[in-house]
Design a protein that fits this description.
- It is a single chain.
- The protein is an alpha+beta fold and about 375 residues long.
- It is about 30% helix and about 25% strand.
- The strands form three sheets. Strands 1, 2, 5, 6, 10, 11, 12, 13, 14 and 15 form a ten-stranded mixed sheet that branches.
- Helix 7 packs across helix 8.
- The longest helix is centred in the last third of the chain and has 19 residues, at about 350-365.
- The protein is globular and about 70 Å long.
């Protein structure tokens, strides 16, 4: 649903998932801000497995609170401001459009390298129409949601050589499912510097007890906006921030949906059927004998997490559709993810969690 030529609000598409680290609330932390290195030598040597940039011997990610699953980057006790995010997260770089030419000196018309100014790495190839959005400008988006200078960030980082950056901020207030299971409200912003990715901002619920990101694109609810790198990008980003400020109804809607999941009981046979549909993508669960070995293993892992996973002992979780849905998100976020942070953001991981949400919605509605 376009609001301008290239500003969209997305509610029904498979959205990029928010979890790009393992953020934690910091209200109960009493000590002042301090910065610590996280991760031993072996863990830092494996940073490329998560596609987190490593520059000048430092991992380009900063986070507040508990140590995230990848154990990389800098840890700060409290949520931080934009200046800290830019410096400590490695986002303090700019990009420029540079003309291209062949090796024999022939200039290419309407083709430019999108080059990082500090490292001179070429991040993509663009045309005249492309307008870079600097990382410092990206933070202005949050002014439209929080108010100027009021945004507090929990995670910020860089992927690849700078092709993508992300910021994750905590919104005021949480909500509860089944009376005790707390879900936090978050806002994610990603900015691409490769010429392909738009600027994306979306609301993201995160389950506090386990830091699972609950991929939940509601049909008819505006949970994401996108801004293409064309025209007056800063102005359109300001408009997008205002649009999202008006769209807080998303969390009211998603709370009602999650509460419906918690009211739907699920026996062992129903749990296996649900997990099979999520893993295989089939409209109806295939027979067990027809499943591949890896598919069976994935289903059994989801069943195990339903019984023993994080938060399973909260009253009203185990034995419900809510517990089954969170077993899938934990499987994706904390068990299955081994390759790349983009797996969680725009790849198979995000798709699996969105499918888990949609199948759960279907089951919850059919039980009414």
């Amino acid at each position: 649903m376009p609001y301008s030529i290239d500003v969209e609000r997305k509610g029904s598409s498979r959205l990029a998932e928010a979890k790009t680290g393992c953020p934690a609330t910091s209200e109960n932390l009493k000590s002042g801000p301090c910065v610590n290195r996280v991760g031993n030598r072996k863990q830092r040597e494996n940073h490329m497995a998560h596609n987190i940039e490593r520059r000048n011997g430092k991992d380009s990610i900063v986070f507040a609170g508990a140590t995230p699953w990848h154990r990389l980057g800098k840890q700060i006790n409290e949520a931080f401001d934009a200046a800290t995010a830019l410096k400590e997260g490695g986002l303090d770089f700019t990009v420029s459009k540079v003309g291209l030419q062949t090796v024999d000196g022939f200039k290419l018309e309407n083709r430019y390298a999108l080059r990082r100014d500090d490292t001179k790495d070429v991040l993509g190839v663009v045309t005249d129409f492309y307008k870079p959005l600097q990382n410092t400008e990206a933070f202005s988006f949050f002014d439209g949601v929080f108010g100027k200078g009021k945004a507090r960030y929990e995670v910020a980082g860089v992927l690849g050589k700078g092709e993508r950056v992300w910021l994750l901020a905590k919104l005021p207030g949480d909500f509860e499912v089944a009376g005790r299971d707390v879900v936090g409200k978050w806002l994610l912003l990603t900015n691409g510097h490769d010429g392909n990715e738009p600027i994306r901002a979306k609301f993201t619920p995160i389950r506090v007890v386990c830091q699972n990101t609950l991929n939940a694109a509601l049909r008819g609810t505006d949970s994401e906006v996108r801004v293409q790198h064309i025209g007056n990008v800063p102005g359109k980003l300001e408009l997008a921030g205002k649009l999202m400020k008006q769209a807080g109804v998303y969390f009211d809607d998603i709370q009602a949906v999650f509460s419906g999941f918690a009211k739907r009981s699920l026996k062992s046979a129903g749990l296996r059927e649900y997990a099979a549909r999520v893993v295989t993508g089939e409209a109806a669960a295939p027979k067990w004998d027809d499943l591949s070995g890896p598919a069976r293993g994935s289903i059994e892992k989801i069943e195990e997490l339903h019984e023993t996973g994080r938060g399973h002992d909260i009253k009203g979780v185990r034995g419900t559709l809510w517990g089954a849905y969170n077993a899938v998100t934990e499987w994706v976020d904390h068990t299955k993810t081994t390759d790349d942070l983009k797996y969680l953001a725009i790849g198979r991981g995000g798709e699996l969690k969105q499918r888990a949400f949609e199948v759960a919605q279907e089951l919850a509605v059919s039980s009414n």
